[in-house]
Specification:
There is one protein chain. This protein is an alpha/beta fold. It folds into 2 domains: 180 residues, Isopropylmalate Dehydrogenase; 128 residues, Isopropylmalate Dehydrogenase. It has an 8-stranded mixed sheet. A hairpin with a 5-residue loop joins strand 11 and strand 12.
């Protein structure tokens, strides 16, 4: 190919992603290769009256056509707008879609990968905590980083999709350092800026009455190490105040200890104007910040903003 497309995996069939994708490409144009099912695409076109022409790609992708929805077809005939439940019927379809995406990215010059949502319960089955870890395993990537990105502020959790009871034992100096270094590298190489990073504590007000606590034993030593290595990082900050406007304006990234500590405030501040970027993979991977939302399937009410931001980010930065 004489261009660099964005590879898009449709993900879970019983989701609003294809509806959102068709809405997004009306707002922002860039060559994409969609990996999905012709049946699903045709049903969405018919249901919503989209004026979209499909072009099924051949094995070597040589028949790519501008102005059309170029896609790779994996047969899936169990999709229906009337089904409001996700089952394991789609597992093989999703697996084949991701495998094909990784094959293309390995052999072609692509801007990156965007994937639609999946069901952790039915597709990952507890084997992986999320698609971040799934793709890390597929690409032999160690210690991937989840970055929820917005031009004004980004957040990143040290631990991702684990029970809150397991968080403390997973807070380690070495893991903090590894992830912060990946974030710093991403900002400097892709965004061309040295990020200002704030790091939260674990305990309320970063205080603990125990002799051994995570702030003293793991977080503060990690901060000291990173400062010595010229990383612009400050903290630990209490998570109940770091997201105040007068504080967030001083930072590019807030790095937290667990998922909801930073993602809850982030979604409150920016809604669907944020995107989930996986750092550390051999390519840029983005997931729009929404789930399958199967209850909204067929209602034509889903917001494409996060997917628009995903495409816009790759179009601007992944060159």
């Amino acid at each position: 190919m004489n261009f660099s497309p964005i590879i898009v995996v449709g993900g879970e069939p019983q989701s609003v992603f294809i509806e959102i994708l068709f809405k997004a490409i009306k707002k922002i144009q860039y060559p994409i290769i969609l990996i999905s099912s012709k049946n699903i695409l045709n049903q969405n076109i018919k249901k919503f009256g989209y004026n979209i022409q499909l072009n099924e790609l051949n094995k070597n992708l040589s028949n790519f056509k501008t102005g059309k929805m170029n896609f790779i077809n994996f047969s899936y005939n169990k999709f229906s707008f009337s089904k409001k439940k996700i089952t394991s019927n789609s597992n093989k379809f999703i697996e084949l879609s991701f495998n094909k995406a990784l094959e293309i990215i390995k052999n072609e010059n692509c801007l990156g990968l965007i994937n639609g949502p999946i069901s952790k319960k039915t597709f990952l089955k507890g084997k992986y905590k999320g698609i971040t870890e799934f793709l890390a395993k597929k690409t032999d990537t160690k210690d991937p980083v989840m970055l929820i990105f917005n031009n004004k502020l980004s957040v990143s959790p040290l631990t991702t999709h684990i029970p809150i009871s397991e968080v403390p034992k997973n807070i380690k100096k070495k893991k903090i350092i590894s992830k912060i270094l990946k974030i710093d590298t991403f900002f400097r190489t892709i965004l061309k800026k040295k990020p200002k990073i704030a790091i939260t504590g674990l305990n309320p007000h970063c205080e603990s009455f125990e002799k051994k606590n995570k702030e003293k034993d793991e977080i503060i030593p990690a901060i000291k190490y990173l400062k010595k290595n010229k990383i612009d990082i400050k903290g630990p900050y209490s998570s109940d105040t770091i997201f105040l406007k007068e504080n967030t304006k001083n930072f590019d990234v807030i790095f937290g200890m667990y998922h909801d500590q930073v993602l809850g405030p982030m979604k409150t501040l920016y809604g669907f104007k944020a995107i989930n970027i996986t750092l550390g993979l051999p390519f840029i991977r983005i997931s729009p910040d929404h789930g399958p939302n199967v209850s909204m399937l067929g209602k034509n009410k889903s917001d494409p903003s996060s997917l628009v931001e995903s495409i816009r980010f790759l179009k601007k930065y992944a060159v």
